[in-house]
Every structure is written in structure tokens, then in C-alpha cells.
Amino acid sequence: MKARIKITLKNGVLDPQGKAIEHALSSLGFSGVNEVRQGKYIEVDLADGDAANARETVEKMCKDLLANTVIENYDIEIAS
Amino acid sequence: MIRSAVIVFPGSNCDRDVKVALEAITGFPARMVWHGESEIPACDLIVLPGGFSYGDYLRCGAMAAHSPIMRDVVAKAKAGTPLLGICNGFQILLETGLLPGALMRNASLRFICRDAFLRCETKDTFFTRCNRVGEVLRMPVAHHDGNYFADEDTLDRLEEDGRVVFRYCDADGAVTEAANPNGSQRNIAGITDSTGRILGLMPHPERLFEPQLGGTDGRRIFESAVVSIAEAMVG
């Protein structure tokens, strides 16, 4: 069972890397970009076949290590 | 006898500089403790040095915060052992939750390696009692992720409690946006816990502790620690 985790900066936290990407896109001629926010994507392959258990485990992984909840949000998707 | 310990992580690179500074200023050998150890021998001061622990993987300091030795670092700090985190050490202190906030990528996105000016905001800490409030210190910074962030409530609380220890300033001590090298909120360069015994800062005091190194502005942080330790011994 796979967990797909998206880690993004919280609203209100400045994202200088996102800003730099935004500038690069506009210098490449892509118009109409309002804003760019960048983040991380992590895949965890779990031995546990139970989706509810897996979600609970990954939730704890996010809080303990994968995300810094001072500045980041996380979103977990469990896929079989 | 002053017993100090420097925690060494894979990727630490200021550990020996800290050891040299500690030994010169305390007059006693400093013990190097590998991150894989489970216990630090009894000591009067623990330092988490700068560097790139675990290659800055995931987030700066995130992996080191979960190193085996950190359980004992946290336990000892909570029991009152003074703890100093410099640069990557500051990042690790935030990742362990011993200090509030986070250090993000510099606003310029560039690695900054130069001297910065700091204003000392309080001498009511274990590490700044030999400094003067308002004193301007010149100290090297060398980091990619030194942009201090905390939510407004946390920042207000830090200010109210006098826990902002150093702010980036210009040579005259004015705290301005232009003097802020990395985008840190409220120009914060260093903070302490509520007891004043845990200090985290981005600049490197160990790189400027004797004239041969180009200055002595970093020295009083260690001297303050020595005075504090001596005072505690006398009781």
C-alpha cells in the first residue's frame, strides 16, 4: 500500500523559491501566472494493507518528521 | 573544572572550531560526542555546532533532531543543562521544538557567507550576561536557510518575554530592512527559551573569539557561559 504525501507551505508563509519560479516562468514568456507555490512530494510504501491504519501511521510520520507543522501543511493520499 | 560537550553529527563542520573556542575560553578539554551515542557524560554545557548535518536532507536539522543522542540532549536541556545551538545547531533546536519557530530558505535564495552586525537585545540569559544591551557585535554568518519564521503570536510572545537575544542591524546598531541578510522576521538572529539557558543563533561566535581570527566579538557568549557556570557552582 502506498501513501502519497504532499507537503506545502502554509498560507501566509512567504515562499521565495515559488517567487523565483514565478519570475522564471514570466521571463520564459508564460503570461497569466498569478502565483507559484512550491512544495515536496513523498511516497511511502507501507507493509500494512489496511488503509485506515496506514493513514494513521502516515499522519504520525508527517507530524514527527516529514513535515514541519510550524510552516508546512501536509496532505495524505492512500493508494492501494 | 568546566565540562563542555560538542555534539558531532555526520556533516557537522564547525565542531572543531567550537571545541577550540570552548577549550581556549573555559581552560578545560571539551568532549566531542558522536550523534550515535545514547548518552552525554555529565557536563555543564552542550553545544550543537554548525554544518550540514545529514546533508540538510528533508529540511535543515530535521534528521539530526531525531538522532539517538538528541534524546539525551533534550532530556538534559529540560533538566537545566545549558544548551547553545549555532547555525545548523539552531536549526536542530527548532526541529526538536526546544525553541519555537522555523528557519526557512534565505529570502534572496542565496547562500550568505559574510560578516553581519548584531544588536544584543538582552543580557538576562546564560550566554549574554557579559554583553551590554544595545551593544553591536560583528559576527560571521554562513547559511542558506537562516530566514527566521514564526507566527505573529509567537513573535509577540518572544518579544514580551525578552527572548529575542540578537537582531541583525547596521554598523550603528539600527535594526533596518537593509541590514537583514536573510529575510528573518523582525530581524531576528537569535532567541532563547523561557529560562535563558537554551540559546539558538545563526551567526558564528566561535569564528571570532580571538584577535588572530580577526576579532573577539563572539568571545563574550562563551565567557558569559563560563561566568554563569562558575556562579552556579558557587551556588
The topology string of helices and strands of chain A comes to EHEHE
Question: Whole-number average pLDDT of chain A?
Answer: 94
> How many domains make up the 3D coordinates of chain A?
1
Number of domains in the coordinates of chain B? 1
| Structure classification of chain A | alpha+beta
Give me the oligomer status.
Answer: heterodimer
The CATH first-level class of chain A comes to: Alpha Beta
Q: Please give the most extensive interface between any two protein chains, plus how many residues each contributes.
A: A-B, 11 and 20 residues
CATH superfamily of chain A: Phosphoribosylformylglycinamidine synthase subunit PurS
Q: What integer value in Å does the Rg of chain B equal?
A: 16 Å
- Residues in helices of chain B, as a percent range: 10-25%
Any idea what the CATH architecture of chain A is? 2-Layer Sandwich
- Stated plainly, the CATH topology of chain A is called Mth169, Chain: A
Percent of residues in β-strands of chain B: 15-25%
β-strand percent of chain A reads 25-35%
The number of E-state strands of chain A comes to 3
Report low-confidence residues of chain B grouped into runs of 5 or more: none
Q: pLDDT average of chain B, as an integer?
A: 97
What order do the strands of the largest sheet of chain A run in, or round the barrel if closed?
2-1-3
- In CATH terms, the superfamily of chain B is Class I glutamine amidotransferase (GATase) domain
EC number (chain A): 6.3.5.3
GO biological process, one term (chain A): 'de novo' IMP biosynthetic process
Protein name (chain A): Phosphoribosylformylglycinamidine synthase subunit PurS
Main location (chain A): cytoplasm
